[in-house]
Amino acid sequence: MRFSLCFVHGGAQRQGKGTFNVARFGAKGDGTTLNTAAIQRAIDAAARTGGTVVFPKGTFLSGSLFVKSGVTLKVDKGVTILGSQDIAHYPVMKTRIAGIETHWPAALVNIYEQKNAAIVGGGTIDGDGKVFWDSYWTLRKAYEPRGLRWASDYDAQRPRLIQVYKSSQVKVGGGLLLRRSGFWTLHVCFSENVTVDGVIIRNNEGGLGPSTDGIDIDSSRQILVQNADIDVNDDALCLKSGRDSDGLRVNRPTEDVIIRDSIVRAAAAGLTFGSETSGGFRNIEAYNITVQGSVPVGILFKSAHTRGGFGDNLRLHDFKMTGIPVVMRITMNWNPSYSYAKIPAGISDIPPIWKVLATPVPKEQGMARFHDVRIWNIKATGATTAFEVDGFKEAPLERFRLENIDIEASKGGHIYDAVDWQFSDVRLKLGAPVALENATGVSGLPAGKVMIKPAGPKDDPSKKSFEEQDKG
Question: Where along the chain is composition biased (Basic and acidic residues) (predicted)?
Answer without folding.
Answer: 456-472
